[in-house]
UniProtKB/TrEMBL annotation:
<keyword id="KW-0732">Signal</keyword>
<dbReference type="InterPro" id="IPR050288">
    <property type="entry name" value="Cellulose_deg_GH3"/>
</dbReference>
<dbReference type="Pfam" id="PF14310">
    <property type="entry name" value="Fn3-like"/>
</dbReference>
<dbReference type="InterPro" id="IPR017853">
    <property type="entry name" value="GH"/>
</dbReference>
<protein>
    <submittedName>
        <fullName>Thermostable beta-glucosidase B</fullName>
        <ecNumber>3.2.1.21</ecNumber>
    </submittedName>
</protein>
<dbReference type="InterPro" id="IPR002772">
    <property type="entry name" value="Glyco_hydro_3_C"/>
</dbReference>
<dbReference type="GO" id="GO:0008422">
    <property type="term" value="F:beta-glucosidase activity"/>
</dbReference>
<dbReference type="InterPro" id="IPR036881">
    <property type="entry name" value="Glyco_hydro_3_C_sf"/>
</dbReference>
<comment type="similarity">
    <text>Belongs to the glycosyl hydrolase 3 family.</text>
</comment>
<keyword id="KW-0326">Glycosidase</keyword>
<keyword id="KW-0378">Hydrolase</keyword>
<dbReference type="InterPro" id="IPR013783">
    <property type="entry name" value="Ig-like_fold"/>
</dbReference>
<dbReference type="InterPro" id="IPR036962">
    <property type="entry name" value="Glyco_hydro_3_N_sf"/>
</dbReference>
<feature type="signal peptide">
    <location>
        <begin position="1"/>
        <end position="21"/>
    </location>
</feature>
<feature type="domain" description="Fibronectin type III-like">
    <location>
        <begin position="662"/>
        <end position="729"/>
    </location>
</feature>
<dbReference type="InterPro" id="IPR026891">
    <property type="entry name" value="Fn3-like"/>
</dbReference>
<dbReference type="Pfam" id="PF01915">
    <property type="entry name" value="Glyco_hydro_3_C"/>
</dbReference>
Amino acid sequence: MQKKLWPAVALAAAVCVAARADVPDFSLDFAPTSAAMNAFGSAAAHRRADTLVSKMTLDEKLQFIHSEYAMSAVPGGGAGYIQGVPRLGIPDLNMVDSATGSGSTSQASTTFPATIALAASWDRRLSSNFGRQVAIELRAQGFGMGLGGGTNLAREPRGGRLFEYLGEDPVLAGEMLAERTDGTQSEKVIATIKHYAGNEQEHNRGGGNSQIDERTLRELYLLPFEIAAKRAQPGSVMCSYNRLNGDYACENAHLLNDVLKNDWRFEGQVQSDWGATHSTANAINAGLDEEEDVGSTVYLTPTAVRQAIANGSVSTARLDDMVRRKLYVMIRVGVMDDPAKGGATINFAGANAFAQAVSEQSMVLLKNDSNQLPLSAASLSRIAVIGGHADAAVLTGGGSGNTRDPVTGAFAGCGGLTFGTSTGCSWWTNPWLKLNTPIVAAIRALAPSAQVSFAGNSDQQTPFRAYTQQEIDQAAALAARSDVAIVVVAQPAGEDFGDLQSLSLANPSNQDALVDAVAHANPRTIVVVESGNPVLMPWKDRVAAIVEAWYPGEGGGNAIANVLFGKVNPSGKLPVTFPVRDQDTPTWGQNGAFEPDPVYAEKLNMGYRWYDAKNITPMFEFGYGLSYTHFSYSGLSVKHRPDGAIDVSFTVRNDGRMAGAEVPQVYLGVPYRDEPPRRLVGWEKFGLNPGEARHVRITVTPRMQSVWDTSRNGWRYVPGGTVYVGASSRDIRLQGS
Ligand code: NOJ
């Protein structure tokens, strides 16, 4: 399919304008949707928390605001532990990482796809179910709190933890995070959203000073947190390792007190990242409610806080507030009355099926020359599968986003194979290959009468070393004698391993040379990418088709095969821009060196906004993704409502020959100084049968039309923008004003 490049022709625009509001109704924005939250009734929860606080002794309060994970009774311990107060019926609380499944250090867990994949699904309901499925496993293991809600924006495309986040757009990330949070808390597990804020790179991870002006903060980097905090009311916000405009995030009064607790009226608690607390009174008075330990608590120990109260640097009222917030969250989410007990059986087969479904919804078809995909098993007798350890595994992200294998109970990459380091199997060491998910086996199952052969790097000790010339030659020879060649390329990344030096697959693993050699040998070469970041594709024009599969989780092998053979029609859309070159990205600078104290000098022009503002053509733009069918757009209507909202409606029709799902996206060009050409303000995802059409209506609230006005320290409504409706941020099909 030929991509339409911006600016595309507007097909139809029926614009009818009603009286504009003098005072736009900002209360329309980010209204809480959580059934669980509403059912609980926050006023009653507040009263109950107040009563409990009034009954607690000073010692009990001091013990309640710091975590000592070594004391946990849950097998494996998780990441943190708050001791309860049995005489008052307050249970212990165990917390654990949960980005892509439970990070329990000893109990088996399902590995779901990375959250960047979840974002690529653009499917709100899927995100809610994702939160729910992860929470079900956490509770079964004895955890009442999950730390999985990562949502720093993909400002640095090379960011080492991009796979744990939700892409580069604040509204997409915020909405998906709100849904995930809601799903988690509906299963009586407290959800944390993180890392608040300005934590967009791993470089200088322990305290780099992110320098971000207030308007950019409010319009971009704080917005996903604001949306999730207001809509889903997560129990906890985790402040990050870095400093923001001089102050550490966990003692940053502007971030914690002014914005989160005052402006957004956040009623939950602020917890530190592990080791991110740097003071006692300063942090507490800036809004930190709980310190998480790295071995042992340092600044919010009972002794330190008692002393701070004695010398008057922390008030007892503030201590009560810290305790009350935690109690309130436990009551509201249901952990107080129904704590996670652990020891429950996990339905791994069901979870595996869900993990596969998420992966199938998230895959992005980037290229499909002359409908080379889907493959037809009946017409293929020899299939070559090459590279990426596709005979054994799929890739996962490393660090606290990792999980244990449900079958072997070992951490990803360690079950049965000896991938990695001489230190053996460790959840924190790289690489991170998820076993029991071979693509080769899944393809064999779908093409039983074909001969499916594998070539690649069979070295299990150093799986990401460069392909040797001999391996490349063998792969090309196999491709030459096959009907189709499927090359799997992979880009490993993980927490605490720094950021990627480049988006290139050439170094150190030589994968570009592999793709080139295979494509030269067989014109029907299909590339499957497993990555948490955008990758460069210098071979893009020389291959027939490209599928971005992300880190697809333990259902990944089957999901990839199902997409390649058309059992699933791909419907993912990119949540990050894929550039042509590193040099095109906003953070490359002169030579790609990372700034230890990053200055967000591009301001609002981040992600697709950068490419649009600078007129740089990306390789694949934000919001882009093909389908095996085709969708047409028509009949735009843009209606301004008296409350300042805009109702955008239009029709999408499946005019191809296969059922499929589309993600029509609404962008707004806001006519105000320094605003980028357009911003995402809404979208829908739905399936259509061939010939079927759907009338779509998307409301653009006043806040979505506003800019942060530093002169009045508030939002300024800017009417009169241009509405764009597209199949991506550049494939604009309809336009109105
Ligand atoms: C540090 C990571 O930054 C954070 O995301 C994680 O939740 C904690 N460690 C606990 O493992």
